[in-house]
Amino acid sequence: MAQDLEIVELRIQMHTNMDTQVELTADQIDNKKVSGKYPFLCTNFKYSDAILKQKTQNEIFDIFFNRQKFYNFILASKLKKNQTTKKRYDNDIVKTNIIQMLNALFQISFPIKDHVSLMDSEKIEIMDIVKNLFKTDKYTYLRLNKPSTVTQVIWLNTVLSNPIYYRIYKKYKDYTKKITDYAENVDTSTAQKIIEKNEKPPFTITNPDDRYNKNIKINLKTKEEWILHFLVSNYKKNTKEYNEFIKYYVQTFINPDSNRQYYPYNNQDPERQFYESVPEIKFYQKYMTDIVELLPPKRISLDKTIATALKQVKDNNDFTDFIRLYTITKKDDYCDLIRLDNGAYEIHLGVAVVGGKVTKTNSKFFCNYNSHRLGNDLNYLIRDVEEEAEKIRLYGYIDLENVKDTNEYVGVINSSVTKKDTTNEENAKKMNYGNIDRRWYGGKKTRKQRYYNKKTRNRKNSPMPHNFKI
User: Fold this and answer.
1) pLDDT higher than threshold 80 for residue 210
2) Is pLDDT of 310 > 70?
């Protein structure tokens, strides 16, 4: 019976209203000592909500973090539910099971009884179940900077809200902007040709001393043209094309007078020489290092459309399909899970907490806090989208341990959005939230960065075409 169940580890990344990103492990749960490390997920058989409803909160923690207890729970679900186990991963089962698990783990009773919400607009039957199934007077406590009470959970389950896809999108935008800036060093018509890749790949350079390459034409002249070509090409590190480009660049611009027959690299590492000679393209090395962590095989989307688009990014540095689905065709659609290279699956949550645990004394504070919460004391996790930014709103952070008078909350707010900033929506608009690039790990763009972004948008006769792809 065990062979027909597909059970995997689930890595849950929590993006909090404290501007932190934390991975949910058993150590993070403060309600009780939980064995195991990561929660488990069954991908081909639905959980029994009737069984979960009978369990205590502490038993629920054990079920999802202890592999043996989780397995026993699935077996009990099989006996309870009249359904057939799917042969493999099933999208609908996975979505339903995750919603049930999140609502079971994150029981929300402060400031009001609530349930886990989703970013996608698709309605499924399970949401009607969980609205009443786990509405209790229980609280979920997480060990963050201190034991903290969970007040809100949002599953970031759309293409546009998923932080991984957002990071890919942002890295593409940042990288293309830097290439646009560098292209100003090259004649406009030449830069246009290089960027549009009119030169047929693979790119090779004529070496007069190399008898095997006598018939290859020289297409680029200046150092800047060579570098621009390098930036827009998809040379994979340690490949023949990559090594060939660097070798000829070093011979042409760094060691032009060396005896190539006997000392082709001046007894130094050509790659190191190359990068040291062009410190202005350090952003290229950082981009290549960072983007690898977000693409296959490090992360593989189980959504076939997204997976195909990201394969194009990985293989050809072609973002065309990904940008289209991210900004237009699938931006508000449910996106399937991501499989990591270690076999575990990954999801992302927006999680709001208040500092400290709810007690009989500070629970009276909930009336004022709830009013303040509804009065737009929210952390805005803002996406830098072209025209309209998607706002993922988390309730503001307060420290319950600082509550002295339950009729007042001055001095209690400890959030990136303060009381005076959030009296109404107009004040929020006046603060130009739409221009803030609030990444999932926090922070804002500097005034200088915003200035240069504006300058780039207004730049005339830029050689970078609108449909540029690297």
Assistant:
1) no
2) yes
Q: What is the 3-state secondary structure (H, E, C) of the chain?
A: CHHHCCEEEEEEEEEECCCCEEECCHHHECCCCCCCCCCEEECCCCCCHHHHHHCCHHHHHHHHHCHHHHHHHHHHHHHHCCCCCCCCCCHHHHHHHHHHHHHHHCCECCCCCECCEECCCCCCHHHHHHHHHCCCCCCCEEECCCEEEEEEEEECCECCCCHHHHHHHHHHHHHHHHHHHHHCCCCHHHHHHHHCCCCCCCCCCCCCCCHHHCCCCCCCCCHHHHHHHHHHCCCCCCCHHHHHHHHHHHHHHHCCCCCCCCCCCCCCCHHHHHHHHCHHHHHHHHHHHHHHCCCCCCEEECCHHHHHHHHHHHHHCCCHHHHHHHHHHCCCCECCCEEECCCCEEEEEEEEEEEECCCCCHHHHHHHHHHHHHCCCEEEEECCCCCCCCEEEEECCEEHHHCCCCCCCCCCECCCCCHHHCCCHHHHHHCCHHHCCCCCCCCCCCHHHHHHHHHHHHCCCCCCCCCCCC
Q: pLDDT tens digit string along 216-234?
A: 344 678 999 999 999 988 8
